[in-house]
Amino acid sequence: MADASAEVAAVFRHESGKAVATLVRMLGDIDSAQEAVQDAFVRALEVWPRDGVPPSPAAWIVTTAKHRAIDVVRRERTREDRYRGRAVMEGEDGTQADPAQAIADALDEPVRDDQLRLMFTCCHPALGMEARVALTLRLIGGLETRDIARAFLVPESTMAQRITRAKRKIAAARIPYRVPSREELPERMGAVLAVLYLVFNEGYSGTTDATRPDLAREAIRLTREVRALLPDHPETTGLLALMLLTESRRPARFNASGDVVLLADQNRSLWDRALIEQGQRLVLDCIEAGQPGPYQVQAAIAAVHGDARRFEDTDWPQILALYDQLFAFTPTAVVELNRAVALAEVRGPAAALALVDGLPLERYHLWHATRATFLERLGRLEEARAAFATAAELTENPAERTFLRGKAGA
Amino acid sequence: MTEYLFSVHHDYSKPLFDDDADVEAMFRDTAAFNDEAQAAGIYVFAGGLEAPDTATTVHVREGETLTTDGPFAEARERIGGFWVLELPDLDTALTWAAKASAACQSPVEVRPFQGE
After folding, report:
1. Domain containing residue B6: CATH number
2. Number of separate domains in chain A
């Protein structure tokens, strides 16, 4: 029976975000929604292994949680808990609604809008980035607090506090539960994509520790959902393509002893061709849409790398041109640093080193590592070793540190 | 509807304005903001405060009244003025806060009042 429970847990987790989204609107309160969905989960553990997973798990969860929610609303009413009761029953226009009718109406509204509401609430700009990430994984991703804590290497109590504080702010400051207007959408969408990309990078660049939940895959799953909800937003497609193309290289990214392998040295036969093809198709969709943005350009760069069966086959002039385009969107020193890598391949390491030396990135480990690579190619080996050593000191990633220390000692 | 406190933060360690033109613009724009808030029916209360060195702090502990000259704690940033506005949600509040900040040429902190 253990297998059946695990399957129920997995399906439930993937569907619970939709149920929480609908229930937040019905109940007007995130905690009550989570409680109701949690109760539905207990019920699912009894029923699903016996009768099988229902055809529409999300609808089952919402219906089951709804019954529980109606009980809660009735209890709130009789308890004369005025403050909470009003928050529960007040509609978007501030009018009092009949709770039973409100819940019946709520069920008729499309789940899609609820998911969007929840997403924009979790990623509201009035919340700090850490709070947005935690809420998104907890409420939309359905991850347990202890798993999110483990993923970000913080104590469970710290993560629990972060989530509680964010939920309290949403309620007290009245962060609205709504889909932004058309004018606000680009900015608010940017906040959502930034959260998803941060989750992805945390998973991708984090260690290969098998006990940590796979944040990279979770980010891909959530980005797919966002794209399904708002298909006419090319930057979402760009971000998804970027994630898939980056993820495709994961099998080649570490060697058998868990050390980092650089792009130039990766065994490209290990790259996941299916992911590369999916990513490249999405990049073509973006080009067709004709509204380029930073994620799309980064995806295009990753797609060019994906085309090269050997490092020597890489179309560097094309990559350099794409970095020029990226720099036009986001003129930052970090983009310049990446552009320098392409420049080194097109015009040689001396030109690239001159560009990098002018960048104010002394606290960034990759600035030192990139300089070191150019110095090495110019035969300035002592300086290269020193730069690798500084990079090793500055990185927070253990696998990277081992790699950089190796280069410094070589 | 929720009442929000919009507090205007000034850095009192340096002159508030570079020249007289800024001061004039601030008074004019802030008055215009007040008119707009009143016309929108969201205005509850507002006021500007004298400098922090005019403050007196009173603290009663164990029946003893301790009176000190000056603000409660040392800080460079102090509240210079505030609004209390009644608004439906935080998004609306942040839109008004952006207008307020532009008018008074200072950062504006938005904080909800507790419900009754």
Report:
1. 3.30.70.1060
2. 3
Q: Testing the interface with A: which of B4, B90, B114 to mutate, by most A Cβ within 10 A?
A: B90
Domain of residue B44, residue span:
2-112
Structural domain includes residue A358? yes
Domain membership of residue A392 (yes or no) is yes
Residue A259 located in a structural domain: no
Please judge whether A94 and B116 are an interchain contact, meaning their C-beta atoms are less than 8 angstroms apart: no
> Is residue A380 domain-shared with residue A408, that is, in the same domain?
yes
pLDDT at A404: 92
Q: With contacts defined as CB-CB under 8 Å, which chain B residues touch A175?
A: 89-91
Q: What crossing angle do the helices spanning A234-247 and A215-229 adopt, rounded to 10°?
A: 150
Is the pLDDT assigned to residue B66 strictly greater than 60? yes
Quick one: A29 and A114 in the same domain?
no
Regions of chain A short of the pLDDT cut 70: 1-3, 76-111, 206-212, 410
According to the model, what pLDDT value does residue A133 have? 93
Phi, psi of A29, deg, nearest 5: -155, 125
Q: Report whether A298 contacts A307 (CB < 8 A).
A: no
Find chain B residues with C-beta within 8 A of A174's C-beta. 2, 88-90, 93, 112
Total domains in chain B come to: 1
Give me the pLDDT at residue A74, please. 77
Could you tell me if residue A339 is inside a domain?
Answer: no
| Min distance A184 CA to chain B CA atoms (Å) | 10
CB pairs under 8 A between A and B: 29
Whether the CB of A175 is below 8 Å from some CB of chain B: the reply is yes
Domain with A89 in it:
1-108
Q: What would the pLDDT profile of A66-95 be if each residue is shown by its tens digit?
A: 888 787 777 766 665 444 444 444 444 444
DSSP conformation letters of A347-381: H-HHHHHHHHHTS--TT-HHHHHHHHHHHHHTT-H
A54, A163, A214, A284, A390 from A207: Cα distances, Å: 37, 24, 10, 32, 21
Whole-Å CA distances, A377 to A26, A40, A383, A410: 63, 61, 11, 14
Residue B90, chain A, CB below 8 Å: the answer is yes
Say whether both A3 and A53 belong to one domain.
Answer: yes
- Kindly report, residue by residue over A249-258, the tens digit of the pLDDT: 998 988 888 7
Do A14 and A61 fall into the same domain? Answer: yes
Which residue in B88, B91, B112 is closest to A172 by CB distance? B112
Determine which of A92, A174, A175, A179 to mutate to test the interface with B (most B C-beta atoms within 10 Å): A174
Distance from CA of A183 to the nearest CA of B (A): 13
pLDDT, tens digit, 9 for 90 and up, residues A221-230: 999 999 998 8
The answer to whether the CB atoms of B2 and A174 lie below 8 A apart is yes
pLDDT of residue B78 exceeding 60: yes
